Amino acid sequence: MADQYGNFTLFSKRNISRPKGYQYPVGLDTLNISVTSNAATNTTGGTQTIDGTNAVHEFTSTANFKPSFAVTGEFLIIAGGGGGGAGGAGGGAGGFRYSSGLSLVKDQEYKFTIGGGGAAGSGGPSAFNPGVQGTASSITSPSPFTDIVSAGGGYGGSRAAGGAGGSGGGGGGFPNNTYAGGAGNTPPTSPPQGNNGGQGHSDNASWTTGGGGGGAGAVGGESPAPGSAGGAGGAGTALSISGSSVTRAGGGGGSGTTGAGRPGGAGGSGGGGAGAGGGPVGTAGTVNTGGGGGGGSDGGTTTTGGAGGSGVGYARYVFSVGSSEIRYSIGGATGGPVS
Asked: How many angstroms separate the Cα of 199 from the Cα of each of 63, 170, 231, 277?
């Protein structure tokens, strides 16, 4: 609008764009355009990190994973480790389940449920309690996905056999007796989610030594000879899903005997707790590894096993997603998409 002197004032400004409902003229040429998108940008769940060309989501507590594109991924889910027994045996590692080449559906939720470690057994001169089995972990989602469940690690026995589980708990010896370790890979999966626990021993009527809990990569160690050191926890399994290679799901070591100076068995690599040796208390499994707890020594009012380590889960996928899109060609320039 002009004033009396012929000067113009701009009252409003409006962006001019293609009118609503506009359609490109019939007969235009088309172009096939390559498009690259970052799938990690809007994918949610857990704690996300970037490892080269891959995105990684770590789950230390229960949460949903929701990919923003259809991607090919890999999952790892580990259950909670079993608690060590008060009377000698190490707890088994939580079940270790890994799957790769998974076709993950855009915007479909995959629930990661993370199990806790089993409580430690406690005891005294006349009561020796086994540990508690770890809690299962799982990844669940609607069809076409097949749910993945990892069983909790078996409890460490206390003057009794070890418990079955993802990996079996060690057996606790009894005066003038032996007890077997618990069965691993229970319930059975393919490939196996864990291994058996080791056998415990005793050499007289006053004390025992415990077997080691099974690990994801190896069976639990048997106490080397009646009345000697505790059995070592079974080794865990190494995997690079989180970036660098990390070993997880080691079994707990069986205990020696405090009064007789027998050393406890070492915890299995991958978070397994050591068995008691110089003292009555076993070492707890490492959190978020599914490691089994170490066995507590057989004797004393403060005898306690170690608690199992909590489980963990991972999702990994290549975040760069390529696709093609057909667009109109306007004088050789790229126009809007053909719909």
From this structure: 38, 6, 8, 17
pLDDT of residue 11 exceeding 60: no
What mean pLDDT do residues 246-251 have? 98
Average pLDDT over residues 242-251: 96
pTM for the complete prediction? 0.85
d(CA 280, CA 296) in angstroms, rounded, equals 5
Give tens-digit pLDDT for 250-270.
999 998 876 566 788 999 999
Q: Are 249 and 312 a contacting pair, CB within 8 Å?
A: no
**Residues 284 and 307 sit within 8 Å (Cβ to Cβ):** yes
Type of residue numbered 60: T
Cα–Cα separations (whole angstroms), residue 100 to 54, 184, 230, 253, 317: 14, 23, 37, 31, 10
Task: Lay out the sheet containing 54-59: strands in order across.
Answer: 47-51, 54-59, 312-318, 71-78, 96-104
Q: What's the CA gap between 327 and 31, in Å, rounded? A: 5
Distance, CA of 150 to CA of 4 (rounded, Å): 84
Which residues of the chain form beta strands (DSSP E)? 29-38, 47-51, 54-59, 63-65, 71-78, 96-104, 110-113, 137-140, 148-150, 237-239, 246-248, 312-318, 320-330, 333-337
CA distance 252 to 273: 5
Task: Tell me the torsion sign for CA atoms 215, 218, 219, 220.
Answer: negative
Per-residue pLDDT tens digits for 170-188 = 888 766 678 899 999 999 9
Residues 279-315: pLDDT tens digits? 788 999 999 999 999 998 866 667 889 999 999 999 9
